[in-house]
Design brief:
The protein has ten helices and three strands. It has helices at about 5-20, 25-35, 45-55, 75-80, 90-95, 100-110, 120-140, 145-160, 170-175, 180-190, and strands at about 35, 60-65, 70. It has a three-stranded antiparallel β-sheet with strand order 1-3-2. Helices cover about 55% and strands about 5% of the residues. The termini are far apart. It has about 200 residues and is mainly alpha-helical. The chain folds into two domains: about 1-85, no CATH class; about 115-199, no CATH class.
């Protein structure tokens, strides 16, 4: 039987990091489609929660309204690539050129905030940052010619492939529109692709 104290400690940390925003039926449906309860991973749930509390695994991405702590199906894969949970922080940091960037990304990873990626790896984290910077640079210089528009939409389309749809809950915990809202949906609405560019 699961240790209720560990489960409660993870839930308390989740609320401290994300704030108290009740999940709606739409949130629950989204989360159930994209994530799994921690207990469904091929490992002891109590041990996984100890690893979360020891900053060796990220917090759940979401806590469903029934209390289920929902995590990515591939939550354990990074530790496997790293050679173990204790090796994971060093392995993770080695993927970033700047120590400050490595620390910031590790903190975001541990907070469970990489619900913005379908596959959570250092490579996809860096690629998302590159695409966000590219899209923002285009938007800062809206020339509107075909070459500009095509380049913009290449970046938007690639970001779209990296990101999931997001839950309504995410707009609350992140304090406003998420990157999909700002850099994919809004950009496509404001700068639609001309038919000739899609041929």
């Amino acid at each position: 039987m699961a240790d209720q104290r560990l489960e409660a400690a993870v839930a308390a940390r989740f609320l401290a990091v994300n704030g108290d925003h009740p999940m709606t039926p739409a949130d629950d449906a989204y989360v159930s489609a994209w994530y799994v309860p921690l207990e469904e991973l091929p490992a002891d749930a109590d041990e996984l929660r100890r690893l979360i509390l020891a900053n060796r695994l990220p917090l759940p991405g979401y806590i469903r309204s029934d209390g289920a702590q929902m995590v990515a199906r591939d939550l354990l894969e990074l530790a496997q690539h790293a050679g173990g949970f204790d090796e994971l922080p060093t392995w993770f940091a080695a993927h970033f050129d700047e120590p400050a960037k490595a620390v910031a990304e590790w903190d975001a990873y541990l907070a469970g905030h990489y619900v913005c990626l379908r596959d959570v790896t250092p490579e996809t984290m860096k690629r998302k940052d590159e695409l966000v910077a590219a899209i923002e640079a285009h938007l800062a210089d809206p020339r509107g010619d075909d070459a500009w528009l095509e380049s913009l939409h290449r970046a938007v389309d690639e970001l779209d492939e990296l990101e999931p749809p997001f839950a309504p809950y995410d707009r609350l915990r992140f304090g406003g529109p998420v990157s999909r809202d700002r850099l994919i949906d809004a950009v496509r609405a404001r700068y639609p692709v001309r038919t000739a560019l899609r041929r």
